[in-house]
Amino acid sequence: MGRLFGTDGVRGIANKELTGELAYNLGIAGGYVLGKTVKGHRPQVLIGRDTRISGDMLEDALSAGLLAMGCDVSRLGIIPTPGIACLTKRLGATAGIVISASHNTFEYNGIKFFNSQGFKLEDAIEDEIDEIVRTGRDVNSHITGALVGRTLEKSEGAMRDYVDFLTAGFMKQKSGFAGLKVVVDCANGAAYRSAKMVFEKLGVQAVYMGAQPDGANINDGCGSTHPERMQRRVVKEGADAGLAFDGDADRLIAADEKGGLIDGDKLMFLCAKSLKRRGLLEKNLLIATVMSNAGLAEAVAREDIDMMRADVGDRYVLEMMQRTGSVLGGEQSGHIIFLRENTTGDGAFAALRFLSALIASGKRASELSSEVTIYPQVLRNAAVKNENKYNFDKDEKIAAAIAAAESKLNGKGRILVRPSGTEPLVRVMFEGEDLKKLDQLAERLTRLIEDRLR
To answer: How far apart are CA 320 and CA 361, in angstroms?
Structure first.
């Protein structure tokens, strides 16, 4: 068994790779490791999940492990990942846990932990939990009687607390929000209730899509990974903008009134520009990733905003933000972190920031979006054996093919090849001026990686 934790918790096909037994053992190990940080009272753990059908099974198993270690567990039901991160800190809990596979299809699920401050666990803590589970080390003291943990009542008030937190800084603009019409795609995921509560509180006229989860339709042709229907619906409804979340609602992809896509890069630029004009962009610095488009770098430079690139993954963005003192960072995929307010990406909060900037500008969304020129990018996924995905850069033929492709770009583009943190894939990205050439080069390299690493 390899390391359990990827870039975003433990993830796999539910009941095959991520089994009930594994969830129970993660509860035991997590309860032991995180419980050591508590003195004078019982560990308090919040659990939330998205809408996928396997959530019930994993929640029960995970809870059982935590209870066996003497942790009291509050099961908050279906709630966005950032809601758990927020409430863990606000309610003074020992830890928060989310059962979700984010943007993946419904057969996948995942388990990710947050510490008492609402941040993802440090590597050393993950490593200790990982070691206990993988080696089977017995840390369960088999407590009895009153020492066994209890499941506390599910709190409907917790969702209201989270919604109040999201909207608090925008209530002064309520009249502006009330003048907007937006299309909201909830991906049949965790935001299907919370998004409605947020936009109703601010008086936004919202048309909802992907808000009827059945356990199997999460991210199915909808949400931030499939925004096309949302884009078309914006035009049909004559809306001012469109908003699409992913399964656990920590991502946002938007659309302008013409149905044009506003990805994470464009959203980061609009938010960075807005924050700078209000004197709130600490260090005058935006943290993006190696995947962010060259057009973003050009746009922020025009505004005299500095930009640094982190590795792909919101945890690496956050690490660089904390190291540099930046308060804004994110990914092209729509994870955007506003560190002054949040400890993780939050799709709903990013949406409110975007709409707030739109209101303040007095412009149409397409006018704001046009300030960033996005250069063509071609993305391909090479399906490989999971144990081979980190070896692409050790293969001489692959290295030679990458070098040859770079020479054909003639210095007017770039290539990024990296392993997926959550799936058995090597991701290939070509960026440049000639889309046809990029497509051909990317396809050729992807096929070679698959042939060499399957």
So the answer is: 30
For 186-223, letters b (16+ CB in 10 Å) and e give bbbbbbbbbbbbbbebbebebbbbbbebeeebbbbebb
Structure tokens at 332: 């092209």
Q: How far does Cα 357 stand from its chain's mean position?
A: 22
Query: Tens of pLDDT along 186-197?
Result: 999 999 999 999
Dihedral sign for Cα atoms in the order 387, 13, 115, 79: positive
Q: At which residue do the structure tokens 């995942």 appear?
A: 110
The token pair at 391 is 């070896």
The 10 Å CB-count burial string (b at 16+, else e) for 53-65 is: ebbebbbebbbbb
Residue 277 neighbours by CB under 8 Å, 6+ apart: none
**Could you tell me where the beta strands, DSSP code E, fall in 298-367?**
306-310, 328-330, 336-338
State which amino acid sits at residue 178: A
Distance, CA of 158 to CA of 172 (rounded, Å)? 23
Q: Which of left, alpha, beta for 223 (phi over 0: left; psi -120 to 50: alpha)? A: left
Euclidean distance between CA atoms 120 and 96, whole angstroms: 9
Q: Could you give the CA distance from residue 179 to residue 204 in angstroms, rounded to a whole number? A: 7
**Amino acid 398: pLDDT:** 96
DSSP state letter for 374 = P
Residues with catalytic function = 102
Round to whole Å and give the CA distance between 419 and 399: 15
**pLDDT tens per residue across span 47-84:** 999 999 999 999 999 999 999 999 999 999 999 999 99
pTM over 0.85: yes
In this structure, how many other beta carbons lie within 10 angstroms of the beta carbon of residue 422?
A: 20
Going by C-alpha positions, the residue among 334, 338, 60 that lies closest to residue 191 is: 334
Q: Give the angle subtended at the CA of 153 by the CAs of 159 and 195, to the nearest 5°.
A: 15
Compute the distance between CA of residue 173 and CA of residue 85 in angstroms, rounded to an integer. Answer: 26
* Contact residues for 359 (Cβ-Cβ < 8 A; gap 6+): 173, 176, 177, 179, 180
Specify which residues 440 forms β-bridges with: none
Element (H, E) at 315: helix 314-324
Q: Which amino acid is at 161?
A: D
Contact 298, 290 (CB under 8 A): no
Residue 129: both structure tokens together = 């939990």
**CA 155/CA 134 separation, integer angstroms:** 34
